[in-house]
Design brief:
By secondary structure, the chain is an alpha/beta fold. The chain has 19 helices and 30 strands. The strands form eight sheets. The chain has an eight-stranded mixed β-sheet, sandwiched between helices. Strands 5-4-17-16-18-19-20 form a seven-stranded mixed β-sheet, sandwiched between helices. Strand 28 and strand 29 form a beta hairpin. 5'-O-[(S)-butoxy(hydroxy)phosphoryl]adenosine binds next to helix 11, strand 20, strand 24 and strand 25.
C-alpha cells in the first residue's frame, strides 16, 4: 500500500454503468446540471421547492433564506415541524409501519429487528419519560450511549419534545464528558451501565459518575441508565433512573412538540485549531432537509435497500446517516454495536452477506485495516463472502488513497458498484462535494463535484478564485440550509472560525486545502490547513492534545504534530520536555507509555500519541516560538532542509529525531 500522498497521481475514470444511470434518482449529467442551474437562477427558491417536497411541515414556511444578520443565516424560519415526526409518524402514515426501520446486530452477533411502528412506540414512551423528569423544549440533554436502538431512540425522543441533544462518543473520557456537559449547560445525561465492544464490557455509567463528581456539572438533575449488560451499578437516589423502569410507566403516544425550523436540533462538539472543543449548533428544518436529500441523491436510497453506515452516533456521520437521514426516508438500516475486527476481520463482510446490505458507507481507515487483515489471514478475505447484494459504496471522513479505493471497488463492490467519496464536515450537516451514482464519472481519490446547490470554490488568501489546477482554500460561497448556525455560547468564535475577515466575512471557510483538476474541475481535498488532525477519520486539535500533556505533573512543555500514516491517515507525534532530565532507553519507553495512558484518560483513547519523543528543549526561534514546521519534518523523518540558523538551540533536533 502506497503513501496516502499519491492521491494526485490518479487519473483512471470509471463511468457510471447504464444500470446505475437508469435506476438513479438524479439520472445523468444533464439532470445534475439542470439542478445546478435552477439553484443558480433562484437560490432560495431552489431550496424552498426541495424543502416543500421532501419534508413534512406542521406550518408551512413562507420564506427560504434570511441573510439579514449574516453570517448568522436562517432558513425556513417561520415554518414549524418536528424531526421525529418526519422520521417516524410519517412512515406510519405512508405504509411503512411494519417495515424494519432498524436491524440491530450486537457485538456478540445477536440480531434484533425493530419496525417503524415499534420504534415510534419506543420513542414516544422515551419522550414521555423525559417529560416526566421535567425535561422540556430547549433543554440540553447529553447522550453517552453505545451503538444501540436505544441510542437512536434517545436522540429522536429529545427531538420529539424539542430538547436539544448533545451526543458524546462513548470513547471520550470523564473529563471530556464533563467539559461538554458544562459548556452545554445540560440538565440530563442518558447513558448505559456498560458498552460491549470486541467481546469486552467497557464502563459508561461509572464514567458519568466521575464526570458528575467534577465541578461545573451542577445543572444535571437526571441520569437515565439503559441496562445493557446488567453489571451492578452505584446509583444516586433522586438523580438516577433505569431506562426500563422509566419506560414501563409511559404511554405509547406522545404528541410531537412543533418547533420552528431554526430550533436547535442538536449540538455536537468537535475540535478546532484553538481552545476547547466547540459545540456545533444545528437547526431542525435545514439540517433535516439535507439529510433527506443526500440520502436520496448521493445514496440513491430506494424502498427495497438495506443501508449500512458503520459510523458511531457519537459523530456527525452517525447523526445524519444513522439517526435522521435513513429514517426520514423510510429506509431499513443496520445499527452495529461492535467493531470491524471481532470476532474476526471478516465481520463487515459477513454482516453484508447476512443482512443483504445494498448500500455500505464506511471510512478509509476501516478499509485500509481490513485490507491488511485480509493480506495476513486469507479466511477473512472478502472473496469468501457473498457480497452480491451490494450496489453502492461510500467513503467518508478523510481522503481515500487510490490504492484503497481500487481495493474497495474491486473486492467489495465486485467492480460493479460506484463509490461515493463524500466530503463534508460536522459543521456542514451533510455531504458537500460528492459524486452522485447515476451522474458522475469517478476518479479514485477525488470527491468530484459539489452537491447540486452547494457553491464550493477554491480561493487564495485574499478570497479570490484560483484557477483550476492551482491549490488553495476550500470555501463555500453561499449559505446552505444544513450549515452550522452557531458555536454554542460563542458567536464571536463562530464568526472568526468560519467567516474570517480575510475573506471579508463573506465566505464559509472549511479549513481544508483543495485543488480542482485542470480539465474536469474535479475537487481533491488535500487536508486541513489549520492545527486540526485527522486520525482514523477522527478530528482532534493539536492544542487539545498539548493541553492534556502539559496537565501531567511530569511535563514541562509539549508540542504535537501530525504525520502521514498508512493506516490511520494521520498519526499523532508528541515532542515532550519533562521537568526532570531527558529520559533515554527503557526509562523513556516507560514514560512514553505513562503519557499515552494519561492522554487516553484526559481525552480518550483516540487521542493517544502514537510516537513520543523526549528532548531537553523544543526547537524555538530566538523570540521563543516553537518551530512546528521543523517538528513536522522531524516527525516524518525528513531530511531537514530548512534554514536552522535562527534556531536558538539547533542541537535539540538530533535528540528529537530519535524515536524510542
Ligand atoms: C474533516 C471534517 C464528514 C463527517 C466525518 C468527519 C475531512 C471528511 C472527507 C473526504 C477528504 C475528508 C476533512 C474535513 N474529510 N470527509 N471525503 N475526503 N477529507 O467530520 O470530524 O467534522 O471532520 O474531515 O478534513 O474538514 P469531521
Amino acid at each position: 500500500m502506497g503513501a496516502i500522498n499519491s492521491v494526485l497521481q490518479e487519473h483512471r475514470v470509471f463511468e457510471p454503468s447504464a444500470e446505475t444511470v437508469s435506476r438513479a434518482t438524479i439520472s445523468g449529467m444533464a439532470a445534475y446540471k439542470a439542478l445546478c442551474a435552477e439553484a443558480e437562477a433562484d437560490y432560495s427558491g431552489y431550496w424552498e421547492r426541495l424543502a416543500r417536497e421532501h419534508l413534512s411541515w406542521k406550518t408551512p414556511f413562507t420564506k427560504g433564506l434570511n441573510d439579514s444578520n449574516a453570517p448568522f443565516f436562517k432558513w425556513f424560519e417561520d415554518g414549524t415541524l418536528n424531526a421525529s415526526y418526519n422520521c417516524l409518524d410519517r412512515n406510519l402514515e405512508n405504509g411503512n409501519a411494519e417495515k424494519d426501520a432498524i436491524i440491530f446486530e450486537a457485538d456478540d452477533g445477536k440480531v434484533r429487528r425493530v419496525t417503524y411502528r415499534e420504534l415510534h412506540a419506543l420513542v414516544c414512551r422515551f419522550a414521555n419519560g423525559l417529560k416526566s423528569r421535567g425535561i422540556k423544549k430547549g433543554d440540553r440533554v447529553v447522550i453517552y450511549l453505545p451503538m444501540s436502538v436505544e441510542g437512536v431512540a434517545a436522540m429522536l425522543a429529545c427531538a420529539r419534545i424539542g430538547a436539544t441533544h448533545s451526543v458524546v462518543f462513548g470513547g471520550f473520557s470523564a473529563k471530556s464528558l464533563q467539559e461538554r456537559i458544562e459548556d452545554a449547560g445540560a440538565v440530563a445525561v442518558i447513558t448505559a451501565d456498560e458498552q460491549c465492544r470486541g467481546g469486552k464490557n467497557i464502563p459508561l455509567k461509572s464514567v458519568v459518575d466521575e464526570a458528575l463528581g467534577m465541578e461545573g456539572t451542577g445543572s444535571i438533575h437526571t441520569v437515565i441508565v439503559y441496562q445493557r449488560t446488567g453489571t451492578p451499578q452505584k446509583t444516586v437516589e433522586g438523580r438516577d433512573v433505569w431506562l426500563h423502569e422509566l419506560l414501563a410507566q409511559q404511554a405509547e403516544q406522545c404528541e410531537p412538540e412543533w418547533v420552528g425550523a431554526e430550533h436547535p436540533l442538536f449540538l455536537l462538539y468537535t475540535s478546532g485549531s484553538t481552545g476547547k472543543p466547540k459545540g456545533v449548533q444545528h437547526s431542525t428544518g435545514g439540517y433535516l432537509l439535507h439529510a433527506v436529500l443526500t440520502m436520496k441523491w448521493t445514496f440513491d436510497l430506494k424502498p427495497e435497500d438495506v443501508f449500512w453506515c458503520t459510523a458511531d452516533i457519537g459523530w456527525v456521520t452517525g447523526h445524519t446517516y444513522i439517526t435522521y437521514g435513513p429514517l426520514a426516508c423510510g429506509g431499513t438500516e443496520i445499527v452495529f454495536e461492535g467493531v470491524p475486527t471481532f470476532p474476526d476481520a471478516g465481520r463487515f463482510w459477513k454482516m453484508i452477506q447476512d443482512h443483504k446490505v445494498s448500500i455500505f458507507y464506511t471510512a478509509p481507515t476501516a478499509i485500509r485495516s481490513l485490507i491488511k487483515a485480509a493480506d495476513v489471514t486469507a479466511s477473512v478475505h472478502p472473496r469468501n463472502y457473498n457480497l452480491s447484494s451490494l450496489r453502492l459504496l461510500g467513503s467518508v471522513g478523510e481522503p481515500i488513497n487510490p490504492e484503497a479505493w481500487m481495493w474497495y471497488y474491486e473486492n467489495i463492490g465486485g467492480a460493479r458498484c460506484p463509490i461515493v467519496d463524500t466530503f463534508w464536515q460536522t459543521e456542514t450537516g451533510g455531504h458537500m462535494i460528492t459524486p452522485l451514482p447515476g451522474v458522475t464519472p469517478l476518479v479514485p481519490g477525488s470527491c468530484t463535484l459539489p452537491f447540486p446547490g452547494i457553491q464550493a470554490a477554491i480561493v487564495d488568501e485574499t478570497g479570490n478564485d484560483v484557477e483550476w489546477g492551482k491549490g488553495g482554500f476550500l470555501v463555500v460561497k453561499k449559505p446552505w440550509p444544513s450549515m452550522i448556525r452557531n458555536i454554542w455560547g460563542d458567536p464571536e468564535r463562530f464568526k472568526k472560525s468560519y467567516y474570517p475577515v480575510d475573506f471579508s466575512g463573506k465566505l464559509y471557510l472549511a479549513g481544508d486545502g483543495a485543488v480542482r483538476d485542470a480539465t474536469t474541475g474535479y475537487f481533491t481535498i488535500m487536508g486541513r490547513i489549520d492545527d486540526v488532525l485527522n486520525v482514523s477519520g477522527h478530528r482532534l486539535g493539536t492544542m487539545e492534545v498539548e493541553s492534556a500533556l502539559v496537565a501531567n505533573p511530569l511535563v514541562a512543555e509539549a508540542a504535537v504534530v501530525g504525520r502521514p500514516d498508512d493506516l490511520t491517515g494521520e498519526a499523532i507525534v508528541a515532542f515532550v520536555v519533562l521537568k526532570q532530565a531527558r529520559p533515554t532507553g527503557e526509562t523513556a519507553k516507560a514514560f512514553a507509555k505513562q503519557l499515552q495512558d494519561w492522554v487516553a484518560k484526559e481525552i480518550g483513547p483516540i487521542a493517544k500519541p502514537k510516537d513520543i519523543r523526549f528532548g531537553d528543549n523544543l526547537p524555538k526561534t530566538r523570540s521563543g516560538k516553537i518551530m512546528r514546521r521543523l517538528l513536522r519534518a522531524v516527525a516524518k523523518g525528513e531530511e531537514i532542509v530548512q534554514d536552522v540558523s535562527t534556531l536558538e538551540n539547533p542541537g535539540i533536533l538530533d535528540q528529537l529525531k530519535q524515536s524510542i
